[in-house]
Amino acid sequence: MYDIIVIGGGPAGMTAAIYARRAAKSVLVLEAVACGGQIINTPDIENYPVEAHISGFDFSNRVHQQAKDLGAEFIFEKAVGIREENGFKTVVTAKNTYQAKAVILATGSENRKLGLEDEDRLTGRGISYCATCDGNFYRNKTVAVVGGGNTALEDALYLADLAKQVYLIHRRDSFRGEEASASRLKERENVEIIYNANVTRLLSEKRLKAIEVTDKNDGSIRTIELNGLFIAVGRVPENQNFASLVDLDDAGYVIAGEDCRTNADGIFVAGDNRTKLLRQLVTATADGAMAATEAVKYVNGL
Amino acid sequence: MAVIEVTKENFEAEVLRSEVPVLADFNADWCGPCRSMRPMLDELAEEQDSFKIVSINIDDEDELTDEYDVSSIPCLVVFKGGEEVNRSVGLIPKDAIAALAVEG
Predict the structure, then answer these.
(1) Chain B residues contacting A, CB < 8 Å?
(2) Which domain holds residue B65?
(3) pLDDT category, A193, cuts 50, 70, 90?
(4) How far apart are CA A21 and CA A67, in angstroms?
(5) Distance CA B72, CA B44 (A)
(6) Does residue B102 sit in helix, strand or coil?
(7) Does the pLDDT of residue B104 top 80, yes or no?
(8) Pick the CATH number of A119-231 from 3.50.50.60, 2.60.40.1510, 3.30.565.10, 3.30.110.40
(9) Residue B86 belongs to a domain with what CATH number?
(10) Chain A residues in contact with B37 (beta carbon < 8 A)
(11) Annotated catalytic sites of B, by residue?
């Protein structure tokens, strides 16, 4: 029996482990893949206090080491559910079960897909969800970006420096993302913005060859031949396995305020999978501290 | 056995003519998920000898990267008898890496 099990080994979960260990609680972090979460895709973090530049990978490694040095245990298994048993929590993974007095959900989020036929098969064969990871493969080629938020705008700008031609396809007639990025994009000669349109079909042989784009107003279809499609239509919180235990909002985020307490006794939430205004590295680690502090209080009160 | 660094010079000998299946990891130094996956590959390489694991740096090995049509990394490609039999893109757990190589 652990005092606290943290589900998810990203910045929020690992920071929760640090705080819980410093309160002398036993801690298990269950991570499905590898520590770090989404931040490992970031080549250069420039907005986290103290370090002007650090890669997401180095950041994650250092936090992981810090948590391990403080005595947090890490097991690499995916948590698929939580059972309430005699006032304690049993966390179920594909292989094992683990017991704890309190649980912190720090599962983060995953890329939202377009939901088109062949999207999975073509991922890595023309479809990507990370322009900074894969942009280099498309030097002097033709690419499209789908989305209208900051990520989509930044991806399109990044790709405009590498690719021959960039299409930006957005389902609305204006952007949610920062105005500065949008106006910089409009100035680029090799960028064409297609408003009020959806990507409705992927055309491929072994790899992606073209996309069909449907105009939302008149239903007309345009086929665009391209080498790469970058999908930046947001992220989906990974809370599906816990939906029966804690209240989620319509978008699937765990409902909790700054205290990171969910509606369920002894279950806390930290990081990108919580309802919040700003999803950044610094707010993820802040959540980790808060959730751990509340979990420690809860455990002490049992 | 450790993970073997492969270039176009030793690709044929280490991968195409290998007696055992080969799991080839196409990666780059600047790729965070690739670096996260590497310790798992190192462990798997040491833990078993039914398949071998090789690492291919895509920045140094343009020809191999083009030949195998790698356009997203990390990219794991499984070879058996000189032919590609399986592929996976993105960071995946250690169990899934092993399964990819064994199923292959």
Answers:
(1) 30-33, 35-37, 40, 69-73, 75, 87, 89-94
(2) 4-103
(3) very high
(4) 8
(5) 22
(6) helix
(7) no
(8) 3.50.50.60
(9) 3.40.30.10
(10) 34
(11) 31, 34
ipTM: 0.89
> Is there a contact between B97 and B40 (Cβ–Cβ < 8 Å)?
yes
Closest residue by Cα to residue A109 from A252, A250, A242: A252
Q: Which string of DSSP letters, residue by residue, matches A3-63?
A: EEEEE--SHHHHHHHHHHHHTT--EEEE-SS-TTGGGGG-S-B-SSSS-SSB-HHHHHHHH
Mutant choice from B27, B35, B41, B43 vs A, greatest count of A C-beta within 10 A? B35
CA distance B46 to chain A (A): 18
Residue of chain A minimizing CA distance to B68: A125
Question: How does pLDDT run across B12-61, given as a tens digit for each residue?
Answer: 999 999 999 999 999 999 899 999 999 999 999 999 999 999 999 999 99
Share of chain B above pLDDT 90, in %: 92
Q: Which residue of B has its CA nearest to A31?
A: B93
Tell me the two tokens of residue B24.
């080839």
Q: What is the pTM of this model?
A: 0.89
Q: Is A209 helix (H, G, I), strand (E, B) or coil?
A: strand
Distance between CA atoms of A218 and A205, rounded to whole angstroms? Answer: 29
Structural domain spans, chain A:
2-110+235-300, 119-231
What's the domain count of chain B?
A: 1
Q: Could you tell me the fold of the domain covering A2-110+235-300?
A: FAD/NAD(P)-binding domain (3.50.50)
